[in-house]
Protein backbone atom coordinates (compact mmCIF):
# COMPACT_ATOMS: atom_id res chain seq x y z
CA UNK A 1 0.00 0.00 0.00
CA UNK A 2 1.03 3.62 -0.50
CA UNK A 3 0.77 4.45 3.20
CA UNK A 4 2.95 1.51 4.24
CA UNK A 5 0.55 0.46 7.01
CA UNK A 6 -0.68 -3.12 7.36
CA UNK A 7 -4.45 -3.01 7.83
CA UNK A 8 -6.48 -5.96 9.21
CA UNK A 9 -8.50 -6.79 6.08
CA UNK A 10 -10.54 -9.98 6.73
CA UNK A 11 -9.83 -13.00 4.47
CA UNK A 12 -12.10 -13.95 1.58
CA UNK A 13 -13.65 -17.33 0.84
CA UNK A 14 -14.60 -18.83 -2.52
CA UNK A 15 -16.58 -21.87 -1.33
CA UNK A 16 -19.13 -21.42 1.40
CA UNK A 17 -19.01 -17.64 1.31
CA UNK A 18 -22.78 -17.44 1.78
CA UNK A 19 -22.77 -19.25 5.10
CA UNK A 20 -24.37 -17.25 7.87
CA UNK A 21 -21.45 -17.71 10.24
CA UNK A 22 -18.91 -16.68 7.62
CA UNK A 23 -20.91 -13.57 6.68
CA UNK A 24 -21.16 -12.50 10.33
CA UNK A 25 -17.44 -13.09 10.84
CA UNK A 26 -16.56 -11.09 7.73
CA UNK A 27 -18.81 -8.22 8.79
CA UNK A 28 -17.00 -8.02 12.12
CA UNK A 29 -13.66 -8.09 10.31
CA UNK A 30 -14.70 -5.32 7.92
CA UNK A 31 -15.89 -3.19 10.83
CA UNK A 32 -12.49 -3.64 12.50
CA UNK A 33 -10.86 -2.67 9.21
CA UNK A 34 -12.91 0.53 8.96
CA UNK A 35 -12.23 1.40 12.61
CA UNK A 36 -8.47 1.11 12.07
CA UNK A 37 -8.70 3.45 9.06
CA UNK A 38 -10.87 6.10 10.69
CA UNK A 39 -8.71 6.17 13.82
CA UNK A 40 -5.59 7.09 11.82
CA UNK A 41 -5.45 10.90 11.44
CA UNK A 42 -3.92 10.89 7.95
CA UNK A 43 -5.88 8.00 6.46
CA UNK A 44 -9.26 9.27 7.65
CA UNK A 45 -8.66 12.65 5.95
CA UNK A 46 -7.61 11.17 2.60
CA UNK A 47 -9.85 11.61 -0.42
CA UNK A 48 -10.50 7.87 -1.10
CA UNK A 49 -11.77 7.37 2.46
CA UNK A 50 -13.91 10.52 2.29
CA UNK A 51 -15.43 9.43 -1.02
CA UNK A 52 -16.25 6.00 0.37
CA UNK A 53 -17.84 7.23 3.61
CA UNK A 54 -19.52 10.37 2.24
CA UNK A 55 -19.82 10.17 -1.58
CA UNK A 56 -22.40 12.96 -1.87
CA UNK A 57 -20.18 15.68 -0.40
CA UNK A 58 -16.95 14.57 -2.09
CA UNK A 59 -18.08 13.94 -5.64
CA UNK A 60 -16.45 17.04 -7.21
CA UNK A 61 -13.19 16.80 -9.12
CA UNK A 62 -11.10 19.39 -7.28
CA UNK A 63 -8.06 18.82 -9.48
CA UNK A 64 -10.08 19.82 -12.54
CA UNK A 65 -11.49 22.87 -10.75
CA UNK A 66 -8.00 23.94 -9.68
CA UNK A 67 -6.67 23.55 -13.24
CA UNK A 68 -9.45 25.76 -14.56
CA UNK A 69 -8.70 28.48 -12.01
CA UNK A 70 -4.95 28.30 -12.62
CA UNK A 71 -5.41 28.42 -16.40
CA UNK A 72 -7.50 31.56 -16.08
CA UNK A 73 -4.78 33.12 -13.93
CA UNK A 74 -2.01 32.31 -16.43
CA UNK A 75 -4.00 33.79 -19.28
CA UNK A 76 -4.10 37.07 -17.36
CA UNK A 77 -0.43 36.99 -16.29
CA UNK A 78 1.88 35.58 -18.95
CA UNK A 79 5.13 35.73 -17.00
CA UNK A 80 4.33 32.52 -15.09
CA UNK A 81 4.62 29.00 -16.51
CA UNK A 82 3.53 25.68 -15.02
CA UNK A 83 6.28 23.07 -14.81
CA UNK A 84 4.40 20.18 -13.19
CA UNK A 85 1.51 19.50 -10.82
CA UNK A 86 2.57 18.30 -7.38
CA UNK A 87 -0.02 15.62 -6.69
CA UNK A 88 -0.96 14.72 -3.13
CA UNK A 89 1.94 16.49 -1.41
CA UNK A 90 -0.54 17.98 1.07
CA UNK A 91 -3.35 16.48 3.12
CA UNK A 92 -6.06 19.00 2.19
CA UNK A 93 -8.58 17.69 -0.30
CA UNK A 94 -9.62 21.13 -1.55
CA UNK A 95 -6.07 22.42 -1.98
CA UNK A 96 -3.86 21.70 -5.02
CA UNK A 97 -0.19 22.49 -5.66
CA UNK A 98 1.76 23.27 -8.82
CA UNK A 99 5.46 23.82 -9.41
CA UNK A 100 5.88 26.94 -11.55
CA UNK A 101 8.62 29.27 -12.72
CA UNK A 102 8.94 32.92 -13.64
CA UNK A 103 9.95 33.40 -17.27
CA UNK A 104 12.07 36.34 -16.22
CA UNK A 105 13.95 34.12 -13.72
CA UNK A 106 13.88 30.65 -15.31
CA UNK A 107 16.15 29.00 -12.72
CA UNK A 108 14.00 29.88 -9.73
CA UNK A 109 11.18 27.56 -8.66
CA UNK A 110 7.97 28.69 -7.01
CA UNK A 111 5.03 26.93 -5.41
CA UNK A 112 1.55 27.85 -6.60
CA UNK A 113 -1.32 26.69 -4.41
CA UNK A 114 -5.05 26.91 -5.07
CA UNK A 115 -7.37 26.50 -2.08
CA UNK A 116 -11.10 26.63 -1.59
CA UNK A 117 -12.33 29.04 1.09
CA UNK A 118 -13.42 27.39 4.33
CA UNK A 119 -16.36 27.69 6.75
CA UNK A 120 -14.42 29.96 9.15
CA UNK A 121 -13.98 32.74 6.62
CA UNK A 122 -15.54 35.74 8.39
CA UNK A 123 -13.73 38.60 6.63
CA UNK A 124 -15.54 40.45 3.88
CA UNK A 125 -14.10 40.17 0.38
CA UNK A 126 -12.67 43.68 0.62
CA UNK A 127 -11.07 43.08 4.01
CA UNK A 128 -9.70 39.72 2.84
CA UNK A 129 -8.02 41.37 -0.12
CA UNK A 130 -6.51 43.99 2.20
CA UNK A 131 -5.21 41.27 4.53
CA UNK A 132 -3.66 39.32 1.65
CA UNK A 133 -2.05 42.49 0.36
CA UNK A 134 -0.57 43.06 3.82
CA UNK A 135 0.89 39.53 3.89
CA UNK A 136 2.56 39.98 0.50
CA UNK A 137 4.27 43.13 1.79
CA UNK A 138 5.69 41.52 4.95
CA UNK A 139 9.41 40.90 5.21
CA UNK A 140 10.23 39.27 8.54
CA UNK A 141 12.72 36.48 9.29
CA UNK A 142 10.18 34.13 10.91
CA UNK A 143 7.40 34.30 8.30
CA UNK A 144 7.80 32.82 4.82
CA UNK A 145 7.27 35.57 2.22
CA UNK A 146 4.14 35.47 0.10
CA UNK A 147 4.94 36.72 -3.41
CA UNK A 148 1.47 36.90 -4.94
CA UNK A 149 -2.14 36.38 -3.88
CA UNK A 150 -5.48 36.55 -5.64
CA UNK A 151 -8.86 35.88 -4.04
CA UNK A 152 -12.32 35.32 -5.44
CA UNK A 153 -15.72 34.63 -3.91
CA UNK A 154 -14.94 30.96 -3.34
CA UNK A 155 -11.18 30.37 -3.64
CA UNK A 156 -7.71 31.86 -3.37
CA UNK A 157 -4.54 31.51 -5.45
CA UNK A 158 -1.13 31.96 -3.79
CA UNK A 159 2.49 31.95 -4.95
CA UNK A 160 5.51 31.59 -2.65
CA UNK A 161 9.11 30.35 -3.01
CA UNK A 162 9.54 26.58 -3.26
CA UNK A 163 11.90 24.98 -0.76
CA UNK A 164 13.84 22.06 -2.22
CA UNK A 165 14.73 20.90 1.28
CA UNK A 166 11.11 20.57 2.22
CA UNK A 167 9.38 21.27 5.50
CA UNK A 168 10.46 20.57 9.07
CA UNK A 169 8.45 17.33 8.96
CA UNK A 170 10.34 16.26 5.83
CA UNK A 171 13.54 16.89 7.75
CA UNK A 172 12.33 14.84 10.74
CA UNK A 173 11.05 11.94 8.61
CA UNK A 174 14.05 12.01 6.22
CA UNK A 175 11.86 12.06 3.08
CA UNK A 176 11.73 13.97 -0.20
CA UNK A 177 9.28 16.87 -0.33
CA UNK A 178 7.68 16.01 -3.69
CA UNK A 179 6.40 12.56 -2.70
CA UNK A 180 2.83 11.76 -1.64
CA UNK A 181 2.08 12.76 1.92
CA UNK A 182 0.63 9.30 2.68
CA UNK A 183 3.88 7.68 1.61
CA UNK A 184 5.99 10.23 3.49
CA UNK A 185 4.21 10.55 6.80
CA UNK A 186 1.90 7.57 7.48
CA UNK A 187 4.64 5.14 8.45
CA UNK A 188 8.08 6.74 8.08
CA UNK A 189 10.96 4.31 8.46
CA UNK A 190 13.76 6.74 9.29
CA UNK A 191 12.07 9.38 11.40
CA UNK A 192 14.18 10.72 14.23
CA UNK A 193 13.85 13.45 16.82
CA UNK A 194 16.02 16.55 16.76
CA UNK A 195 18.98 17.35 18.96
CA UNK A 196 18.39 19.47 22.04
CA UNK A 197 20.17 22.47 20.51
CA UNK A 198 17.92 22.32 17.45
CA UNK A 199 14.81 21.92 19.59
CA UNK A 200 15.74 24.99 21.61
CA UNK A 201 16.60 27.13 18.56
CA UNK A 202 13.70 26.08 16.34
CA UNK A 203 11.21 26.26 19.20
CA UNK A 204 12.28 29.77 20.14
CA UNK A 205 12.11 30.96 16.52
CA UNK A 206 8.62 29.51 16.11
CA UNK A 207 7.49 31.20 19.32
CA UNK A 208 8.87 34.51 18.05
CA UNK A 209 6.85 34.08 14.86
CA UNK A 210 3.68 33.39 16.85
CA UNK A 211 4.32 36.38 19.10
CA UNK A 212 4.75 38.56 16.03
CA UNK A 213 1.36 37.49 14.69
CA UNK A 214 -0.42 37.83 18.05
CA UNK A 215 0.97 41.31 18.69
CA UNK A 216 -0.24 42.40 15.26
CA UNK A 217 -3.79 41.21 15.92
CA UNK A 218 -3.57 38.37 13.39
CA UNK A 219 -4.67 34.79 14.03
CA UNK A 220 -3.01 31.63 12.74
CA UNK A 221 -4.26 28.30 14.12
CA UNK A 222 -2.42 26.13 11.57
CA UNK A 223 0.96 25.49 13.16
CA UNK A 224 2.36 22.01 12.53
CA UNK A 225 5.62 20.52 11.25
CA UNK A 226 4.56 20.67 7.58
CA UNK A 227 3.90 24.42 7.87
CA UNK A 228 7.43 25.22 9.05
CA UNK A 229 10.26 25.74 6.55
CA UNK A 230 13.89 25.56 7.72
CA UNK A 231 16.08 27.85 5.63
CA UNK A 232 19.73 28.35 6.63
CA UNK A 233 19.03 27.46 10.26
CA UNK A 234 15.98 29.75 10.51
CA UNK A 235 12.44 28.44 10.93
CA UNK A 236 9.76 30.26 8.97
CA UNK A 237 6.01 29.82 9.22
CA UNK A 238 4.06 29.27 6.02
CA UNK A 239 0.33 29.28 5.25
CA UNK A 240 -0.19 32.18 7.65
CA UNK A 241 -3.16 33.18 5.50
CA UNK A 242 -5.08 29.98 6.28
CA UNK A 243 -6.78 31.48 9.31
CA UNK A 244 -8.14 34.39 7.26
CA UNK A 245 -9.20 32.06 4.43
CA UNK A 246 -11.31 30.11 6.94
CA UNK A 247 -9.95 26.61 6.24
CA UNK A 248 -10.07 24.15 9.17
CA UNK A 249 -6.97 23.24 11.13
CA UNK A 250 -5.50 19.75 10.94
CA UNK A 251 -5.72 19.54 14.75
CA UNK A 252 -9.29 20.80 14.99
CA UNK A 253 -10.69 17.34 15.88
CA UNK A 254 -8.31 17.30 18.87
CA UNK A 255 -8.82 20.75 20.39
CA UNK A 256 -12.56 20.75 19.70
CA UNK A 257 -12.87 18.20 22.50
CA UNK A 258 -10.99 20.46 24.96
CA UNK A 259 -13.25 23.29 26.10
CA UNK A 260 -10.42 25.33 27.65
CA UNK A 261 -8.83 25.73 24.21
CA UNK A 262 -11.36 28.25 22.95
CA UNK A 263 -9.25 31.19 21.67
CA UNK A 264 -6.94 31.54 18.69
CA UNK A 265 -3.96 32.15 20.99
CA UNK A 266 -4.62 28.96 22.97
CA UNK A 267 -5.01 27.04 19.69
CA UNK A 268 -1.55 28.21 18.58
CA UNK A 269 -0.03 27.14 21.91
CA UNK A 270 -1.71 23.74 21.70
CA UNK A 271 -0.38 23.30 18.16
CA UNK A 272 3.08 24.33 19.36
CA UNK A 273 3.01 21.63 22.05
CA UNK A 274 2.04 19.09 19.41
CA UNK A 275 4.94 20.27 17.22
CA UNK A 276 7.40 20.24 20.13
CA UNK A 277 6.48 16.62 20.86
CA UNK A 278 7.15 15.70 17.22
CA UNK A 279 10.50 17.50 17.22
CA UNK A 280 11.49 15.63 20.39
CA UNK A 281 10.35 12.09 19.59
CA UNK A 282 10.29 12.09 15.78
CA UNK A 283 6.55 11.45 15.56
CA UNK A 284 3.37 13.22 16.66
CA UNK A 285 1.57 12.03 19.82
CA UNK A 286 -0.87 9.17 19.36
CA UNK A 287 -3.59 10.86 21.42
CA UNK A 288 -4.29 13.99 23.42
CA UNK A 289 -3.90 14.61 26.35
CA UNK A 290 -0.48 13.04 27.03
CA UNK A 291 0.48 12.10 30.60
CA UNK A 292 3.11 9.43 29.93
CA UNK A 293 6.20 10.43 27.95
CA UNK A 294 8.84 8.08 26.53
CA UNK A 295 12.30 8.16 28.05
CA UNK A 296 14.20 11.20 26.82
CA UNK A 297 17.30 12.86 28.27
CA UNK A 298 15.80 16.34 27.89
CA UNK A 299 13.93 16.99 31.14
CA UNK A 300 13.45 20.65 30.26
CA UNK A 301 11.51 19.62 27.15
CA UNK A 302 9.24 17.29 29.11
CA UNK A 303 8.33 20.05 31.58
CA UNK A 304 7.22 22.29 28.71
CA UNK A 305 5.27 19.45 27.11
CA UNK A 306 3.49 18.77 30.41
CA UNK A 307 2.47 22.43 30.67
CA UNK A 308 0.68 22.12 27.30
CA UNK A 309 -0.35 18.52 26.61
CA UNK A 310 -1.06 17.04 30.05
CA UNK A 311 -4.58 16.38 31.30
CA UNK A 312 -4.26 19.10 33.93
CA UNK A 313 -3.09 21.65 31.35
CA UNK A 314 -5.93 20.79 28.97
CA UNK A 315 -8.43 21.29 31.81
CA UNK A 316 -6.92 24.44 33.34
CA UNK A 317 -5.78 26.27 30.19
CA UNK A 318 -2.77 26.92 28.00
CA UNK A 319 0.24 29.09 28.88
CA UNK A 320 0.94 32.20 26.82
CA UNK A 321 3.70 32.67 24.25
CA UNK A 322 5.56 35.04 26.57
CA UNK A 323 5.42 32.50 29.41
CA UNK A 324 6.89 29.80 27.16
CA UNK A 325 9.69 32.10 26.02
CA UNK A 326 10.63 32.67 29.69
CA UNK A 327 10.97 28.93 30.42
CA UNK A 328 14.50 27.53 30.93
CA UNK A 329 14.23 25.66 27.63
CA UNK A 330 13.97 28.82 25.49
CA UNK A 331 15.08 31.75 27.65
CA UNK A 332 18.82 31.34 26.97
CA UNK A 333 18.56 30.92 23.18
CA UNK A 334 20.57 33.49 21.22
CA UNK A 335 18.73 34.81 18.17
CA UNK A 336 20.38 36.26 15.09
CA UNK A 337 17.63 38.84 14.71
CA UNK A 338 17.60 40.49 18.10
CA UNK A 339 15.80 43.65 17.00
CA UNK A 340 12.17 44.06 17.92
CA UNK A 341 9.87 42.93 15.13
CA UNK A 342 6.32 44.07 14.54
CA UNK A 343 3.60 44.01 11.93
CA UNK A 344 1.97 47.35 11.20
CA UNK A 345 -1.70 46.64 10.53
CA UNK A 346 -4.02 49.48 9.43
CA UNK A 347 -6.61 50.38 12.05
CA UNK A 348 -9.58 49.49 9.82
CA UNK A 349 -8.14 46.09 8.98
CA UNK A 350 -7.25 45.52 12.63
CA UNK A 351 -10.90 46.02 13.62
CA UNK A 352 -12.04 43.67 10.87
CA UNK A 353 -9.54 41.05 12.02
CA UNK A 354 -10.72 41.43 15.61
CA UNK A 355 -14.35 40.91 14.60
CA UNK A 356 -13.47 37.89 12.47
CA UNK A 357 -11.40 36.46 15.32
CA UNK A 358 -14.34 36.77 17.74
CA UNK A 359 -16.69 35.10 15.24
CA UNK A 360 -14.24 32.24 14.75
CA UNK A 361 -13.91 31.71 18.50
CA UNK A 362 -17.69 31.86 18.97
CA UNK A 363 -18.21 29.18 16.34
CA UNK A 364 -15.57 26.99 17.98
CA UNK A 365 -17.13 27.39 21.43
CA UNK A 366 -20.57 26.50 20.10
CA UNK A 367 -19.17 23.40 18.44
CA UNK A 368 -17.42 22.44 21.67
CA UNK A 369 -20.66 22.92 23.63
CA UNK A 370 -22.64 20.69 21.26
CA UNK A 371 -19.93 18.03 21.35
CA UNK A 372 -19.79 18.18 25.15
CA UNK A 373 -23.56 17.67 25.43
CA UNK A 374 -23.42 14.78 22.97
CA UNK A 375 -20.65 13.10 24.95
CA UNK A 376 -22.60 13.50 28.21
CA UNK A 377 -25.70 12.00 26.61
CA UNK A 378 -23.68 9.12 25.19
CA UNK A 379 -22.10 8.40 28.58
CA UNK A 380 -25.52 8.49 30.27
CA UNK A 381 -27.02 6.11 27.72
CA UNK A 382 -24.04 3.78 28.01
CA UNK A 383 -24.29 3.78 31.80
CA UNK A 384 -28.06 3.29 31.68
CA UNK A 385 -27.68 0.26 29.42
CA UNK A 386 -24.82 -1.38 31.30
CA UNK A 387 -25.31 -4.77 32.99
CA UNK A 388 -24.53 -3.38 36.44
CA UNK A 389 -27.07 -0.59 36.06
CA UNK A 390 -29.75 -3.02 34.87
CA UNK A 391 -29.17 -5.22 37.94
CA UNK A 392 -29.39 -2.19 40.20
CA UNK A 393 -32.69 -1.13 38.63
CA UNK A 394 -34.12 -4.65 39.06
CA UNK A 395 -33.20 -4.67 42.75
CA UNK A 396 -34.82 -1.25 43.26
CA UNK A 397 -37.95 -2.39 41.41
CA UNK A 398 -38.24 -5.46 43.65
CA UNK A 399 -37.83 -3.37 46.80
CA UNK A 400 -40.44 -0.93 45.58
CA UNK A 401 -42.86 -3.74 44.74
CA UNK A 402 -42.44 -5.31 48.18
CA UNK A 403 -42.93 -1.97 49.90
CA UNK A 404 -46.07 -1.30 47.87
CA UNK A 405 -47.51 -4.73 48.69
CA UNK A 406 -46.79 -4.26 52.40
CA UNK A 407 -48.49 -0.85 52.39
CA UNK A 408 -51.55 -2.33 50.62
CA UNK A 409 -51.83 -5.07 53.24
CA UNK A 410 -51.70 -2.47 56.02
CA UNK A 411 -54.43 -0.41 54.33
CA UNK A 412 -56.70 -3.46 53.97
CA UNK A 413 -56.19 -4.46 57.62
CA UNK A 414 -56.98 -0.97 58.90
CA UNK A 415 -60.06 -0.75 56.69
CA UNK A 416 -61.40 -4.12 57.92
CA UNK A 417 -60.90 -3.15 61.56
CA UNK A 418 -62.82 0.07 60.99
CA UNK A 419 -65.65 -1.79 59.24
CA UNK A 420 -66.00 -4.34 62.08
CA UNK A 421 -66.18 -1.67 64.78
CA UNK A 422 -68.17 1.13 63.16
CA UNK A 423 -71.35 -0.65 62.10
CA UNK A 424 -73.61 1.50 64.39
CA UNK A 425 -73.58 4.27 61.89
CA UNK A 426 -75.45 2.11 59.38
CA UNK A 427 -79.02 0.83 59.93
CA UNK A 428 -79.19 -2.77 61.09
CA UNK A 429 -80.92 -5.40 59.08
CA UNK A 430 -84.09 -7.20 60.13
CA UNK A 431 -83.61 -10.08 62.51
CA UNK A 432 -85.56 -12.28 60.14
CA UNK A 433 -83.02 -11.72 57.34
CA UNK A 434 -79.57 -11.21 58.85
CA UNK A 435 -76.81 -10.07 56.50
CA UNK A 436 -73.98 -12.58 56.11
CA UNK A 437 -70.60 -11.24 57.23
CA UNK A 438 -67.96 -10.30 54.68
CA UNK A 439 -65.10 -12.60 53.79
CA UNK A 440 -62.53 -10.21 55.14
CA UNK A 441 -64.35 -10.04 58.45
CA UNK A 442 -64.44 -13.82 58.62
CA UNK A 443 -60.70 -13.88 58.58
CA UNK A 444 -60.36 -11.60 61.58
CA UNK A 445 -63.24 -12.71 63.96
CA UNK A 446 -65.41 -15.87 64.36
CA UNK A 447 -69.02 -15.83 63.20
CA UNK A 448 -71.64 -15.09 65.93
CA UNK A 449 -74.23 -17.83 66.64
CA UNK A 450 -77.40 -17.57 64.59
CA UNK A 451 -80.34 -15.84 66.29
CA UNK A 452 -83.33 -17.94 67.45
CA UNK A 453 -86.51 -17.88 65.39
CA UNK A 454 -88.90 -15.00 66.07
CA UNK A 455 -92.06 -15.53 68.12
CA UNK A 456 -95.12 -16.46 66.13
CA UNK A 457 -97.05 -13.41 67.25
CA UNK A 458 -94.66 -11.02 65.60
CA UNK A 459 -95.00 -10.06 62.01
CA UNK A 460 -91.85 -11.21 60.26
CA UNK A 461 -92.20 -8.56 57.62
CA UNK A 462 -92.01 -5.71 60.09
CA UNK A 463 -88.64 -4.59 61.34
CA UNK A 464 -87.98 -2.56 64.43
CA UNK A 465 -86.98 1.00 63.81
CA UNK A 466 -83.26 1.59 63.68
CA UNK A 467 -81.87 2.65 67.02
CA UNK A 468 -80.14 5.92 67.51
CA UNK A 469 -76.39 5.82 67.28
CA UNK A 470 -74.79 5.58 70.68
CA UNK A 471 -72.42 8.16 71.95
CA UNK A 472 -69.63 5.74 72.72
CA UNK A 473 -68.73 5.56 69.00
CA UNK A 474 -67.53 1.94 69.34
CA UNK A 475 -70.56 0.08 67.95
CA UNK A 476 -72.38 -0.26 71.33
CA UNK A 477 -75.89 -0.23 69.75
CA UNK A 478 -75.13 -3.17 67.51
CA UNK A 479 -73.53 -5.11 70.37
CA UNK A 480 -76.57 -4.47 72.63
CA UNK A 481 -78.92 -5.64 69.91
CA UNK A 482 -76.96 -8.84 69.37
CA UNK A 483 -76.82 -9.44 73.14
CA UNK A 484 -80.58 -9.03 73.56
CA UNK A 485 -81.21 -11.41 70.70
CA UNK A 486 -78.91 -14.05 72.15
CA UNK A 487 -80.41 -13.78 75.68
CA UNK A 488 -84.02 -14.04 74.45
CA UNK A 489 -86.07 -16.62 76.39
CA UNK A 490 -89.72 -17.64 76.01
CA UNK A 491 -90.11 -18.22 79.74
CA UNK A 492 -89.74 -14.56 80.48
CA UNK A 493 -92.85 -13.77 78.43
CA UNK A 494 -96.03 -13.05 80.46
CA UNK A 495 -98.82 -15.57 80.13
CA UNK A 496 -101.70 -13.98 78.33
CA UNK A 497 -105.35 -14.87 79.10
CA UNK A 498 -107.50 -15.10 76.05
CA UNK A 499 -111.27 -15.52 75.63
CA UNK A 500 -112.32 -17.99 73.03
CA UNK A 501 -115.00 -16.33 70.99
CA UNK A 502 -114.86 -18.70 68.11
CA UNK A 503 -117.77 -20.81 69.36
CA UNK A 504 -121.17 -19.94 67.91
CA UNK A 505 -123.60 -18.24 70.20
CA UNK A 506 -127.02 -20.02 70.30
TrEMBL record:
Major subcellular location class: cytoplasm
UniProt xrefs under SUPFAM superfamilies: Protein kinase-like (PK-like) (SSF56112), PX domain (SSF64268)
Composition bias type Basic residues, residue spans: 371-382, 391-402
One BP annotation, GO: early endosome to late endosome transport
Keywords for this protein: Cytoplasm
Subcellular location: Cytoplasm
Record domain PX: where: 1-60
Assigned GO CC terms: early endosome; late endosome; plasma membrane
Compositional bias per record (Pro residues), positions renumbered to this chain: 428-437, 446-468
Biased composition annotated in UniProt, kind: Basic and acidic residues: 494-506
UniProt cross-references to Pfam families, sorted A to Z: Pkinase, PX, WH2
Entry protein name: PX domain-containing protein kinase-like protein isoform X3
Source organism (scientific name): Lates calcarifer (Barramundi)
Phylogenetic placement of the source organism: Eukaryota, Metazoa, Chordata, Craniata, Vertebrata
Gene: pxk
Amino acid sequence: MVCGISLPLPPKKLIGNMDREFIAERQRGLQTYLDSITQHPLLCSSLPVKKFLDPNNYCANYTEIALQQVSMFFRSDLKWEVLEPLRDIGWRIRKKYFLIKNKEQPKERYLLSWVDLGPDKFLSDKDLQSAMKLLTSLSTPYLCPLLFSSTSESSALLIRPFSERGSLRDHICKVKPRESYLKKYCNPKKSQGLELSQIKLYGRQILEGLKLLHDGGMFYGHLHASNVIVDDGVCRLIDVENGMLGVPSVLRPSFTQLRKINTTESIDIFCFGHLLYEMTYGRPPDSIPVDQYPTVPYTAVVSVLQSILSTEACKSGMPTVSQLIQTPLFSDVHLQHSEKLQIKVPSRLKEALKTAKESLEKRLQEEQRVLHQHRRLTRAQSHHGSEEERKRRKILARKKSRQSAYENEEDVSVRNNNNSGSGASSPPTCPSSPTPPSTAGAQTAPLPPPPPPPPPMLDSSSCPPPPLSSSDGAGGGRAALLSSIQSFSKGKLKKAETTDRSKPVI
